[in-house]
Amino acid sequence: DGRVVEEHTGEGKEWVVAGGSSGGSAVAVASGASLASLGSDTGGSVRIPAAWTGVVSIKPSYGRVSRHGLVPLVNSLDCPGVMARSVRDLAMVLDCVQGRDIMDSTSVESEKIDMGQLEGISVDGLRVGIPQEFLCEGMTEEVVEAWSKVASVLEEGGAKVVPVSLPHTQLAIPCYSVLNPCEVASNMARYDGLQFGLRGKASSSTEDMFAESRAKGFNDVVRGRILAGNYFLLKKHYQEFYLQALKVRRLVTQDYLSAWSQVDLLLTPVTLTTAPTFSTFTQQDNRSQTATQDFCTQPVNLAGVPALTLPASLSSNHLPISIQLVAPLNQDTRLLRVGAWLEDRLDFPRLVIDDSLETEQKIVEMAK
Amino acid sequence: MFTLNFNQKLFRLDQRLFSSQIASKLAQNVEEVAQLKTLVDKNKQILRQTSTGLWESVIGLEVHAQINAKSKLFSSAPHEFNSPVNSNVSYFDASIPGTLPVLNRRCVEAGILTSLALGSRLNMTSFFDRKHYFYSDLPAGYQITQQRTPLAVGGTLCFPVLDSGLSRDAYQGSSSIVQLQLEQDSGKSLHDEEGGRSLVDLNRCGAGLMEIVFGPDLRHGEEAAALVKELVLVLEKLDTCKARMERGELRVDANISVRRPGEELGVRTEVKNLNSIRSVARAIEYEVARQVMMLEQGGVVENETRSFDLGMKKTLPMRDKEAKQDYRFMPEPNLPPLRLVDDNTDHTDMINISPIRSTMPELPAQTRSRLSDQFGLSLVTAAQLVEWPDLLDYFFHCVTFSPNSYKELADLVFTVVQENSNQTGLPALEIKLKPEVLVKASNMRQAREISYTGMQEVLGMVLRGDTREVIEIVKDRDLFLIRDRSYIENFVREIIELKSDMVEKHNKETNKKKQGKIFQALMREVNKDPRVEKVDMAAFSQIFKKMLEDSS
């Protein structure tokens, strides 16, 4: 994240954050600087900034996009994701980056995305689930309204919208709060200053050099996670924390598996609120931030299933509100199809770039 | 054995040094060890005796064998010996962020073949884990290994224990196998004392290893050395590991403890990185003596890691590796479970055990059995032949030419053939003496057409370049033994006349045993006669006896 001047706030008002961790990517797309961008989504870090900046995003099925070259956070949850200003743009880019890569042993084959599949769609008979547990404390009325509105649009189109239960939803964040530090502690063990990166000046022993490099090179957040992760992974704690977290993850995953016997898609919010101001954002520490805003996005990573976010409406203070569609594993195309159908009907204000010849000539004139 | 050339003498001397007597003699030079006497009880158990009573030493080995593959376990960087420093390092090996492990099929196949040869049970599903610790030769800060569920479990390795000085005849030792797992090797760090720095070479980092963990079944450094020797032979035969210890392709760690017979296992120490068979035996013997000394003096054995200093012939505590490290094991998230199949279908994307099993060669134990059963060779000779594949090959070539005595053949292979092979530096089958010729010469000797010395002469000439048929050389050098009855009888009459008083003594003697001794004395006199070389002494002896009988 960083400080970003949201286009809707205007002069004199406080800055609003874009969210993270792929905030930069989201802003590049939202501001028109880029057609599309890539990010990585471990607990919502592509979908949240996309929701807060009003662009479309997808966290594909785990394994659909290769992680070779992606600096890892949590290997078993990380998914490279795509952001764009329309579902069709998104689909084009996803088609380019998805697929089995022999350099990533966890990547899988995926069927080609045919742009024709995104036309002439009907949602008649589509079964859409509304997970009750996603209506949580801290969620603003406007977000709930946007959620309802989209449900109505789908119903009008012939979809069957029904309530479902994902009973272990609230366990997702505690589970993540164990899995994340453990993998972070492991993945960060390579930063010792020896082969690359910052190297401490201590020369009395290798251990001292390692310790100095790591103390200086990592900030509080990372160091906190490493210490927590190493604590959880100690032999005497392994069963109680890491193994337990794996079991909880299994429970969360099974919630989704059960849901697919009843519905074809899930419809949920993405974030609990619209983008916060910078001061609000900096008041809360990182862990609490995550604990709150990742509520709707984190469980999806644990289950490994794909999710699409779509801007649905603007709040009363002109900030975007998005909704999330979740599909079964490897049904990414279903998300794109329904997403395209919805996008045409939701009428969210979209940035249109005028790259016509006349405008270009005008600009050239003005420059002279 | 005593007509060997210099190189071989050293080799034989080497083996002698394994003997516990000498090992403990060396250990006696160091004050901190007990005076141990090794003995074998009536149940063939090896025990140690000191002034305070009996001790039993318990040893379990862990062997790290570098897999013979073109590239590393999880990266495509080449795996070669003696490459320029840091020239075989992929981004993954250097732990550059964003790189991921990709499993090397050949390494898994090598692990499977080795497991099958050791009689282990393959786990149809096995997993990879991360073992975390910080060290300069481990760039990622963790090693990828198999801790939870290894590739294979169980099995046994049997091995001959020969020439050990353990007051036992050559016997078959055995050790159970706990498991076999695949894991990454680390890089190498060298300490530049002068420059006050450490130098890191990552060429070896990420190379595939098979770690074979044995149960605590050994009782002496000798047995451990014999086990390692056998394992080397097996791995060489399978070609899954080149097993040249001097190149670090096979490294041994020994877990050692002592106890009074019948008691619980004592606290163990681990002696790491033994890189020669000699070190294995010596380090273990020293450590056993050290532990006994500690306990007899009322001290305690600490659960620690030690190294072996070959120069000082002692084990020493390792300073930079703490005994108790929590490795914070965690499943390796970037590798799916390793699943094997075992059937007759053609799987391109799975590893199938069945075709691998069908490539199993004859193992050293089977070859030794075959040499004993088919050719009547002793355990010692069979073991020696198996140990020298070059000579074994030569021996099998000889067999096709119908030798009359396999035993003599084997002896000749270990003397004449090996000696010349060493001298010329040629493989056994390429020396001037070809199997067919050796067999012909040996058969003539067996048939008593020529003497042993005569045979040696023929072989010597062939080795020096004589290309004639054996029979030609024998004729030319007049090596045929005389068997002519009348000639021998004349010879005998001469002797009887010459040594008439001894002959009388012989004939008068009623005690058979004493008579036999006098006969032997007579034969010794006969052997002084130079004509003896040309005579078939077996025939001579027979005729001599008969004629003595007749004369009495």
Can you walk through the features of this model?
The complex is a heterodimer of chains A (368) and B (552). Chain A is of the alpha+beta class. Helix content of chain A is 41%, strand content 14%. Chain A has helices spanning 23-30, 47-53, 87-97, 141-156, 172-187, 206-217, 220-233, 239-259, 278-283, 286-293, 298-303, 332-346, 357-367, and strands at residues 3-4, 16-17, 36-41, 56-59, 79-84, 127-131, 160-164, 265-269, 307-314, 320-326. In chain A, the strands form 2 sheets. An 8-stranded mixed beta sheet of chain A has the order 3-5-4-9-10-8-6-7, with helices on both faces. Chain A has a two-stranded antiparallel sheet with strand order 1-2. Chain A is globular. The two termini of chain A are 37 Å apart. The model of chain A is unreliable at 1-9 (pLDDT under 50). Chain B has 552 residues and is α+β, with helices and mostly antiparallel strands. Chain B is built from 17 helices and 20 strands. In chain B, strands 1, 2, 3, 4, 8, 9, 10, 13, 14, 15, 16 and 17 form a 12-stranded mixed beta sheet that branches. A 3-stranded mixed beta sheet of chain B has the order 5-19-20. In chain B, a hairpin with a 4-residue loop joins strand 16 and strand 17 (314-317). The two termini of chain B are 42 Å apart. Mean pLDDT of chain B is 88; it is low at 1-23 and 26-31.
Shape of chain B: elongated
Distance between the termini of chain A: 37 Å
Secondary structure: number of strands of chain A: 10
Number of strands of chain B: 20
Residue stretches of chain A low in confidence (pLDDT < 50, at least 5 long) are 1-9
Task: Please give the share of residues in helix of chain B.
Answer: 25-40%
Q: Which sequence of SSEs, written as H and E, runs from N to C of chain A? A: EEHEHEEHEHEHHHHEHHHEEHH
Strand percent estimate of chain B: 15-25%
Helix/strand/pairing category of chain B: alpha+beta
Average per-residue pLDDT of chain B, rounded, comes to 88
Strand arrangement in the largest pleated sheet of chain A: 3-5-4-9-10-8-6-7
The CA-CA distance between the termini of chain B, in Å, is 42 Å
As a percent range, the share of helical residues of chain A equals: 40-55%
Count of discrete alpha- or pi-helical segments spanning 4 or more residues of chain B: 17
Largest sheet of chain A: 8 strands, mixed
Q: Any idea what the shape of chain A is?
A: globular
- Unreliably modeled segments of chain B: 1-23, 26-31
User: Any idea what the radius of gyration of chain B is?
Assistant: 30 Å
